[in-house]
Design a protein that fits this description.
About 50% of the residues are buried. By secondary structure, this protein is mainly alpha-helical. It contains 25 helices and eleven strands. The two termini are about 35 Å apart. InterPro entries: DUF1800. Keywords: Signal.
Length: about 600
Amino acid sequence: MAMRLGVRCVILLTAVMSCLHGTSAHGGDFEVFSRNEMIDVMVRVRATQFLQRATFGPTQDEIDAMTMRMRQIGVTAAAEEWIDDQFAMEPTSHVATARAMMAADGWAENEDGVNITRYRDHAWWHIAITAPDQLKQRIAWALIQICVISNQGAGFNNRGLDNNQNADWLGLSNYYDMLLENSDDTYREVLGDVTYSPVMGTYLSHLRNKKGDPSKGVFPDENYAREIMQLFSIGLYEMDSDGQLKVDAEGNDIPTYDNETIKAFARLFTGLTFAGSRTITNGRRDLHNPMMMFDGSHDQDPKTLLNGVTLPANPNGVADINAGLDNLYAHPNVAPFISRLLIQRLVRSNPSRAYLGRVAAVFNDNGQGVKGDMKAVIKAILLDRECWNSIRVSRSRRPVRIIVRPTGTERSRLAEPVVMYAGFLRRFSSPEPDGWYRLPALDYNWVQAPYRSPSVFNFYLPDFQPAGPITAYQASSRIPNGSIYAPEFQLFDAVVANRMANRIRGDVADANADYTAVNNEKAGRHDVDLPMDFSVEETLGEDPVGLAKHLDMTLCAGTMTNEFREALVDALQQETNVEQRTRGAILSVLMSPAGMIVE
């Protein structure tokens, strides 16, 4: 018990304070005793580094397999092969998984009195932890933080069934599946599917949006028109392909659109309503099928959109909207704006101008004349040379050792809470006896949870800067616009840090993650227990140095500082109980800067 409490204090001091005021800046050294061990350490760092970005957190088996394959055919070749294999997989459906879990428990999707909507969360966590198509799932998680929807309001938690016997509350899972299918489409298809989604139409109110009547002071809703430009495609200000903002003759940022553009796009997004409706306002709610068009309710007049392009009068509302989306997609901001957001979600908070420019170039043309090819863009993001350069790996001859050095604040990011915890469970946990992971949303632990964004602006802003040294940090000339950002720190305050530490402390100390999935009169009480498997680590428990090295390689991609590792080894040597020593080590590493900052 003393060991656990001591580790908890270390967590609060090192993980919270160090993460808030810096990153693991120096990395550590690995003593090696053979050429084979030297190569294994160097390649294993790369395997872990790559999989931390491309999955919800790598398992030991995945790291071992990637290390072996990288040794066989080379680091980049193995990573590209893995990406190709991932894109070849069928996506694991969230709707189908939720239904399978409900069926296993004997409930219908419109069941009353059992908190049936929890299966939306159960399915998300189960898939994040177990699904083989990890890359597609990570891309979908990135896309839903760009084209944001939320369960807040709008009837998204209703248990009612539509004409096809689909429950309203599963509409959000259907939206997620749509983005999952989009993971290897083009971004133009993303914009089209999002625009016609009844979930987005409900959330941003362009569903049942009718053409205006200026003589009566009636105008179309502008909500979606504004957000599809500001958040889903081009951003607020014009930029070069490398993310550098353009300025006018007076040195001012140049807006990408104005209020007249918003009004024109608002007129464009009219006439859409639920599939199967008799009129634009008369039809049963359907959150599972794309919206349909009522041309008579669509504004058919000419519209001047971006870059002065005017769409002619068009009685065909679908054709008109598609032409408008093409106009939006043709804007030069789309490539750098969306590329930057994807890089932030997968790799680092502050892509350099060169890195962003290379990815944007692939976004604009995949080599075959296709713009926005998601597969090509994701490859460009995950295989770019700067991805690997965020960790420098070198050799020293006397003594023979491998030196691992993160290359600085500009090349890292804080792991977001949901991904951090999913990675912990993927690495150590086992499901319930029937094979399911019935986790609740867990937003009470760390604010962030699937389908629970507080607004269309996501859980954090891409340009968020926490108070402290980062606001005064002098960015290098590599970084566009001279400032660096740390989006995830908008969530990670002292309260969230403490809650996360307590959650993981309890899971590790008890070797069991426990939750209450449901507790009411009809469903009864279902307590979930997910046993933790620390057997690999416990075999190293007699060797604190070896245990620390193993955890560094597995959880931190080798970026633990020598100072932290030495302090950890000293603390572990004072604990004689191997079980407590092992669990204390795991907890300390998970909540250390090296465990929470992704290099």
